[in-house]
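Researcher: Quick sanity check before group meeting.
Model: Go ahead. Protein one:
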Amino acid sequence: MTIAYDYINNNNYVKLPLVGNHYTGYKITNKDTDINLIYDIKNKYDKNAIKVISIKNTKKYNIGFISKDKTYLVKNIYNKLKFITIIKRIINSQTIYYYLIFKKN
């Protein structure tokens, strides 16, 4: 069993798909540990969008958005989430998915 498997199959954690990250031009790494969720009310595609920001050396990087089907969940438990890690899932050389793992407090 991997650590990722433990997070995914544990009800104390929330797995949130990261979308739109290939449009940001930012390469996600294991050094992305200071993650913030920002309500993006000016988003022209989705008024309920939640932007994912990585902060490194006081500089903010947009790394994508929470999947549209998970924004309602996030809004309901926003203050109860603590960022844990990012899981990278490689399907093939062209298809990579990222998941944000948060612990429910």
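Researcher: Fine. The other one?
Model: Protein two, sequence then structure:
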Amino acid sequence: MADVRLGATRHEALANKLRISIVAAGTREALHVMRADPQIASRFEKLELPVWTESQELRRFIAGYLALLPIKRSSAAIDKRFVEYLLELSEGVTGSIIDVLRRAALQGIADKTQKAGLVQLQVVGAKMPSVVGQRA
């Protein structure tokens, strides 16, 4: 807990000196740690990102992220089955979506298709431990 307090104090000093806002992001465990200290808790507003659901907004997010990766771009590959399976593997959590997409892109590079499509997602999914329903 002392490390958290020291880190928060340093961040506050840096934020004040540079006149910038500091954003803390993390898991529920990080939130519990931050709430354990009232002084730290008072410095940050809790804002929980909702899990993604199948939507045009999610498709744009996926397309935008895939455009950053060194693979072939194909918006046709982001069909309903692709999105539903991605949501199943990631439980709609942004960090997990990014991780699964990154793994799918690596699979596409490994299998020489240079794609992150449904086939690559299925290979990635077969290698992942079952996570469905484990999110608290």
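Researcher: One line on it for the slide.
Model: The longest helix spans residues 2-18.
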